[in-house]
What we know:
By secondary structure, this protein is of the alpha/beta class. The chain has two domains: 16-325, Collagenase (Catalytic Domain); 330-411, Immunoglobulin-like (Sandwich). Helices cover 23% and strands 20% of the residues. It contains nine helices and 17 strands. Strands 2, 3, 4, 7, 8 and 9 form a six-stranded mixed β-sheet that branches. Strands 14-13-16-17 form a four-stranded antiparallel β-sheet, with no helix packed on it. It is globular and about 70 Å long. Residues 28, 30, 225, 229, 235 line the site of zinc ion. Zinc ion binds next to helix 7.
Amino acid sequence: MKKSTNFILIIISLLFFQMQSKGQSAQCATDFIHNNLMQTDSAYRNQIVTLESQVEAITPNHANNKLRSTLNTIPVVVHVIHLSEPLGTGSNITDIQIQQAIAGLNDRFRNVNGLGVDVELEFCLASKDPNGNSTNGINRVDGSSVPYYSANGITPTGNPCSGAVATAIKDLSRWPVSDYYNIWVVSEICNGSFVGYASYPVGGLYDGLVIVSTSMTSNSGTLPHEVGHGFFLYHTFNGDGGNVSCPVDTNCLINGDRVCDTPPHKQSDCGITNPCTSLGVWDNSQYNYMAYCPLVNRFTQGQKDRIIATVMVAPRASLITSVGCETLGINESRSSNVFSVYPNPAQNQINVKTNAKLLGSVYIVYDNKGKLVLTGKINSENTVIELGNLSDGIYLFSVGENLKQTFKVVKE
Length: 412
Ligand SMILES: [Zn+2]
């Protein structure tokens, strides 16, 4: 009896650890940049102060009052700034890896396997570019000619490290921040000193997040962490003076991370108890995506309220009405002479009409979390694909050489 109990406990703990993401393996540079700008750029400081007061006014100040949200989807564009490597090598990571990273990001925001709350926010790779053309939401640019990039990667603005100037890297490829959340995948940040950083929501040409290619993966804790910053979450240890002292905690809405259900702690405090306070649910901080602790598995209700409040005001509000992930109509597609998909929305099946060039091509269908749900071959100029077993929702359909052409299909 005891043996089987032990066995069950081992299985449970294995499952538990499988659900968690690895936390930050190296530091994120967000605070460094933010603190620097707060001291040197009064326009930035005013923007943050204004946004804080807007978010604070919306965020409920009682734990049992929650902001009501509906599921919102944010169009994302990923710019891969590689070092001229072949596709799938080094920093030039594959489309599949990126799609799986976005799927993993969505799983964490929706709390699919986590121990926190469903934030009810999702991210979709753009299907429509700023000119209205079809896209898979991924841009690849060779950054090796930008000075210092090959040797040391990118230098976050204001950092003394000797990599490429951040704006020079971002200028290689960026889409309007009002319609897309920009993610730049880079080879390195400051010669390996950081794994990522994000702009707090201030808009402008360079708003978005930067992540090293090795952290752009499906089980990354870095991606949800940086997106958290992008939607105005601070570290759970915010206010610890760089791991020096316990954050002030007089009013949880304006002190520390400004979230009331994440007890304040110091950056390196990740143990069984919280030396800063015995109040609150310690697991909410030590296993939080916004901590630096080794295992992370949650956003909290307080963080969700802050994210929802942030999405309701500028500059993030425009993202939820963006058409960046809308379906391209058949007539809108610049490739309509090559293939079209109809009807759309579809019910039990879709028809793929192609010209003879595409015969024998592979097609793949992903759900909106990037999970592969169907694959097959185009076997005639009018191929019928059965969707009967799929649940209702949005699917991405890719076909053709390198699966370059993507359509969004709605099943209802
Ligand atoms: Zn961070």
